[in-house]
Q: What sequence folds into this?
């Protein structure tokens, strides 16, 4: 591998990946938290049980989640154009990633909330806390450790998605590996990128585990 | 019990849960009318599924009654909107079987939570938390997390949290059922202090008769959603009128021999047997000794037990009476007439225990 020639391109690709991961994780995390909490509280017998809201959210999540990301990336083109202004480039790819990440995370959030002890929520209700307060000060803090682990899991999924950004000109290290590694028959480039991705994933998992352990208070 | 207006009053209250997936609706609480006086410890006892948990959740509006009227501290709870109900709930403390502490908060954080909900300023909050932890004896655990505490300590945190906003009523839902006997006594002692020192009315739900026996002033017995018996704890124990009550009493007190026990007693003690009940002033054993001496005979205690209910002595003793036939006869006649004792006869000519509520209940249990 010719570092003189590829170095600046690789750095740029890393920056693009960092950009996509940051925004997709931030926006996707918030969307996922909102939909996941919505699914949980609207479920029958729960805090704000509402059959219609639950059905709408549930169907929406079930429709979006099974779509392979590479198809989703193109399929939401019109929406991407309306929101971002273009269907190509890093921003357009980030938009699609944030949405997909949101829907994926919502199920993880819901699952973690379902396993919460309903007694704690009842205790908060008995103290006169409002539903919104219970969501913000009981539900989420009590489920924080598994939510952090779920979020870490999501990070790896989003990193996976970012490798496909190249198809709409989004760049990133995944695209770099394909263009300068695979298509140039340069195995060294491919394996350097693979190595970098493994390191990123390891670091993310270490951080996630550390934070989850801190949140457990055991 | 008192002439003052009751602090909690239920009038013809029912709660019907809709059946799951078109099943038949379940009536958890069925036309219940009870009054709970300010300052008392009121027990609601019943087997699982009797509706007692639902009943107590109607008082703090965690469940909404299907029909009937509920009044708490002079204000009607039924027919109120959600926002008003939150205020009702904030004014009633509640503790739970599984403690229901927030694992993400420290002990101090848990106790402070209801104060945050009530928008108490930070400085006052800290002072109140310190005061409450002192009251329950957990000052040194303020910064610990619930996971680091024992069951008894967790429940004491639960009690401190329930008392944070100075409620006039405390609801205790099976609050000792997850604790070992020794810790149960600690928690019951604390509840008694809450009642005596702070004047807080406590509604205790339990299936453990021993809890009722040691702290309740009055009790209501529930079966299949209905309150089948209400009264002073002592009276209900001493003279249960409903079979469900009789079963509970029999499960808690073992002073009266069951028919099977009585049969074994007769095998071992072929003489004349007499069952003597304790009087509430505890005078029975002195009376017994005196009367035996007067008749020049001897009595051996072969079964029985004396304990306390609502801080009054309660129980019975079964004796084998030994002596000349005529003296024994005279003695038995006297104790039956003047002390309400029960003559059980001898092994060769037994007379069975009359079908009192307690014995009746034991047989049908």
A:
């Amino acid at each position: 591998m010719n570092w003189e020639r590829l170095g600046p391109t690789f750095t740029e690709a890393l920056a693009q990946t960092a950009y996509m991961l940051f925004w997709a994780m931030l926006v996707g995390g918030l969307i996922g938290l909102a939909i996941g909490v919505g699914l949980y509280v609207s479920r029958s017998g729960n805090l704000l049980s509402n059959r219609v809201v639950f059905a709408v959210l549930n169907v929406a999540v079930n429709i979006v989640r099974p779509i392979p990301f590479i198809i989703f990336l193109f399929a939401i083109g019109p929406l991407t154009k309306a929101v971002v202004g273009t269907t190509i480039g890093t921003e357009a790819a980030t938009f699609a990633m944030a949405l997909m990440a949101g829907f994926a995370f919502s199920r993880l959030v819901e699952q973690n909330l379902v396993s919460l002890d309903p007694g704690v929520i009842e205790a908060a209700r008995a103290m006169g806390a409002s539903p919104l307060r219970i969501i913000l000060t009981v539900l989420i803090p009590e489920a924080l450790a598994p939510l952090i682990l779920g979020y870490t899991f999501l990070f790896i999924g989003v990193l996976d998605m970012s490798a496909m950004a190249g198809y709409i000109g989004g760049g990133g290290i995944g695209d770099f590996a394909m263009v300068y590694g695979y298509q140039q028959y340069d195995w060294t480039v491919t394996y350097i990128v693979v190595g970098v991705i493994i390191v990123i994933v390891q670091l993310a998992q270490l951080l996630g585990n550390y934070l989850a352990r801190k949140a457990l208070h055991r | 019990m008192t002439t003052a207006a009751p602090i909690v009053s239920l009038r013809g209250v029912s709660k019907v849960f809709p059946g799951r997936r078109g099943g038949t609706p379940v009536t958890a609480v069925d036309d219940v009318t009870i009054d709970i006086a300010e300052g008392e410890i009121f027990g609601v006892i019943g087997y699982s599924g009797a509706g007692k948990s639902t009943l107590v959740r109607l008082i703090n509006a965690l469940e909404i009654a299907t029909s009937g009227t509920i009044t708490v501290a002079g204000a009607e709870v039924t027919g109120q909107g959600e926002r008003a109900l939150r205020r009702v709930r904030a004014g009633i403390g509640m503790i739970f079987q599984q403690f229901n502490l927030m694992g993400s908060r420290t002990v101090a954080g848990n106790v402070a939570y209801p104060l945050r909900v009530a928008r108490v300023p930070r400085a006052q909050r800290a002072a109140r938390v310190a005061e409450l932890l002192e009251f329950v004896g957990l000052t040194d655990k303020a910064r610990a997390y619930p996971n680091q505490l024992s069951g008894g300590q967790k429940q004491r945190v639960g009690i401190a949290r329930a008392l944070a906003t100075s409620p006039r009523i405390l609801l205790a839902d099976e609050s000792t059922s997850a604790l070992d006997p020794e810790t149960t006594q600690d928690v019951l002692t604390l509840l008694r202090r809450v009642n005596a020192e702070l004047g807080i009315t406590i509604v205790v739900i339990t299936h453990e008769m021993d809890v009722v026996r040691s702290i309740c002033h009055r009790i209501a017995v529930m079966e299949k959603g209905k309150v089948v018996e209400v009264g002073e704890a002592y009276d209900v124990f001493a003279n249960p009128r409903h079979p469900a009550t009789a079963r509970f009493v029999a499960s808690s007190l073992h002073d009266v021999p069951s028919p099977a026990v009585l049969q074994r007693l007769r095998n071992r003690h072929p003489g004349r047997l007499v069952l003597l009940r304790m009087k509430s002033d505890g005078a029975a054993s002195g009376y017994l000794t005196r009367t035996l001496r007067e008749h020049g005979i001897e009595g051996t205690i072969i079964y029985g037990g004396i304990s306390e209910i609502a801080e009054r002595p309660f129980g019975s003793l079964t004796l084998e009476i030994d002596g000349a036939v005529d003296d024994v006869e005279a003695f038995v006649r006297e104790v039956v007439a003047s002390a309400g004792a029960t003559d059980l006869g001898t092994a060769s000519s037994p007379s069975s225990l009359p079908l009192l509520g307690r014995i009746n209940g034991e047989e049908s249990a």
Remarks:
- Chain B has a mean pLDDT of 85.
- The radius of gyration of chain B is 25 Å.
